[in-house]
């Protein structure tokens, strides 16, 4: 009897070890002090980044957790806390109020493009588009992409510019590019 009991326990221990090894073998990118695992979805990874706590709070306030956890694929241009800090004082606090949910949702979905667009794809489109190209965001408006020196840049509808500071953070349901400025539709 004891021998039969040990086999399932050994199998469970082996399974737990294999899961740990799988995570250890994944090619991760560090964002906000946390490893971003390609086997996790956008939300599962973002909640671990200390540089994206404002974005995560805004996503929750806008009710977009389920959308960003979906199968996708999605490309997310993720502003850091420092990017949100560039906004006028009180803007974020005002946007997360329930009565401003539609505006917040519009701003956040302006940072999302359907499909998986890695930096190579974006740069190839820039080269073939005479130095820039546009992509339609989930909110329906367009973002313009260009290079400034060696930096991949995004231009929003109001003329604001954001620089990609960390590119190609692959997720189970898409890819994230970290940006230094909040984009405005």
Automatic annotation (TrEMBL):
SMART domains: FAS1. Coiled coil: none annotated. Residues 39-183 form the FAS1 domain. Keywords: Signal. GO terms for cellular component: extracellular space. Residues 1-24 form the signal peptide. InterPro entries: Adhesion/Biosynth-related (IPR050904), FAS1_dom_sf (IPR036378), FAS1_domain (IPR000782). This is Fasciclin. The lineage of its organism: Bacteria, Pseudomonadati, Bacteroidota, Chitinophagia, Chitinophagales.
